[in-house]
Amino acid sequence: MACQLSEGRSNSFFQRCKPYIAMISLQFGYAGMNVITKVSLNHGMSHYVLVVYRHAFATLSIAPFALILERKVRTKITFTMFLQIFVLALLGPVIDQNFYYAGLKFTSPTFSCAMSNMLPAMTFVMAVICRMEKVNLKKVIYQAKVVGTVVTVAGALMMTLYKGPLVQLFWTRYIHIHQASAPPAASVAADQDWVKGCIFLIIATFAWASLFILQAATLKKYTAQLTLTTLICFVGTLQAIVVTLVMERSKPSIWNIGWDMNLLASAYAGIVTSSIAYYVQGLVIQKKGPVFASAFSPLMMIIVAIMGSFVLAENIYMGGVLGSVLIVGGLYSVLWGKYRESKENKEKESMSLPLEAVKGVIEGNAKILELEVDEVEIEKAKANNKKMISSSSIDSVVVSVVEPAPDVLMKVKQELKS
């Protein structure tokens, strides 16, 4: 008996820990994608080609699940729906990923992850503009959202405009000293590339936020999520091919890919971060909500910083550290406001249920009143207009109803006495 109780407690504890384990594992998966992709880009792979191969792998890995699991829930795709899918593919696989990889190439994995934490704040601003979010500055939850958005933008500006001194880590001191001897011209070029990379990352985050806004509207009409993701990845692959042919038309050799880091980066990004991650994150959001899933995103930045310093000997600057702190603080302020708002909405929905029940009781009582009045009228007709019902009986008929309105009570008494 004691053994069964202990097993039940251990199983219950494991069930509670599952969402935390899943999200932590997911952050390691995202961190690995950033580091592997950075290595591939440093070795000369075109980010345009990387986007094509990534979403081709994603389409092939998601499509079987969509065909099997959603064969009964798919709806017909209209021309308007196709246009929405086309724009979603343009925002996500094409604009977002190309600019993100370009920014990653010019900056660093840690910096790119930190800039990605702007997403909730930027999505909130766009949702307010599109009237999908309400802002009432008299309430603390909306004040937290606005302040968090401002702080997040300030952190992004600090990371863009201020680098500051190097943050010395004991396992990279020799590398930093060696890099400090680089010529001034190379340092100036690196600073220019850094600003360019920041701008690319901001554009990528803006496109990603736009994708969320449009996707939320699209899912209201097309509820098959796996099928919609498959179509977005497939159409995005075709669009990315066209963009690559235009941008890299003089380099046909860039399409060559072998059993090397380029193949690993493409397959890893497509299968792990576009397929497995989508499924795991969907399960966690379904069980714990989107706020819980978003709260783990800063963990990816920490993991990438540690991995990048070991694998890539990545430089970490004071401006990046301070900006990251501001972005994470603003992120949690926005997420807290969103959590409190969703909690208030749930409380309002739970309060509306008793009101509906009371309304049903009142409507039922009104029907009872009508039936009893009809019975009285029938008795009056049978008695040949003899007054069989006294004033006290009228009161008893009316009292049998639960608290009728006073004006209704007076009206019924007058009709029965007449």
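That was protein one. Protein two is written in the same sequence-then-structure order:
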Amino acid sequence: MEEGKETKGKLTTEPKIERTSEEERDRLSELPDFVLLHIMNFIYTKDALRTCILSKRWKDLWKHLTTLSFYQSSLFNERRVVNFNKFVSQVLSCRDGSISLINVRLDIFESIGSQLLNRIMKYAVLHNVQQLTMYIPFYYGKISTYLDPIIFSCQSLTYLELHNISCWPPLELPKSLQLPALKTLRLSRVLFTATDNVCAEPFTTCNLLNTLVLNDCFLHNDAKILFISNSNLSSLKLNNLKIRDTFQHKVVLSTPNLSSLTVCIFGASSLSIQPLSSTCNLSCLEEGTIDIATDISHPVLIGWLQVFTNVKILTLSYETLKLILKDLSNLATMGSQPLCFVRLESLKFVTNRFRVISDEEVNKAVEYLLQNSPLIRVLLSKKLYHGSLLNYLGPVLAGLANHNRSQIGPSLEWDHNHQHHKGGL
């Protein structure tokens, strides 16, 4: 009998809605294990583990994860920290140890015990981890104090990001990184120490290293040279390299196959900026960027520019251009140490609507930079963040190109919000 209800003295009946077996199917659980695990590998391990309560099918599925991603909130709570540490320990104990790891990520915003951290590192190494990312506050500078160096001799590791999010001290790394499979390395706030001499050579044994990014890294007092030597390296970014004592320190490149080089300095003291040089001519260099937002001596700046003499596309920030103009205001430096960009095809100045530079200044800097360069064609461009400068920059660059027609060539190009504007001269 159908269920009914009384409405104004009348009994009305409503059909009972029955779900079909097709509608009641758990389509997600019907997916193959490898598909479910692929999805679960994109979420934090804590959320992946919660799926074990869904059904018997899900109970042990998380134990086969190939990605472990642990996140500790920045909101300090002692009980929360204790629970987090217990959770990580339980995951390592209960996960299926016969399955190799692909990726491990740690986002730790409060203190983590060195015992637990080293357990994670050993577990990762023993399970052939391929990618490791760590954002951790290392409150103690010595590796031996906090982090077991076993991770720096991992044979399976192809990708490593190590970010020391504590302000001080920098984390002191081993003198040599024994990572034969490593292809990408990103380091922040670490300290390089010298080997038997005054030279720090941490990357020489990373034979497959292709991409290297150094942020806010330091040279120890016992090291005078950071020697970046690697024949396979193709991309290098040096951001805010610093030293601790004197101006005697320097960075030397031995990277014959380098195709991309970026050097950025922000807010550093001029005494903490190292001279940059290369033992080879960097004949494969396609793209180069120099961005200096602090004062720097003329010899050091010229030394940096000389490293880029074989670059095809050179990008200079507004701040870097102003430094060049500052040096040019001293007539004694204008003709010293002439530069020669033998392969240059594109010269770019990056600015924004708040930092306007006159056509006379741009022209003066370009004449100085290109005075000895055997150029066939150069594209001068300015990347704009706002459209209000477009009308201003068009005449500036057109006038500059007309003034240097014999060197710059028949065309002009500049960028505006990723749209290309070209004008014949």
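Residues 297-302+312-330+337-389 form one domain. Keep this in mind for the problem set.
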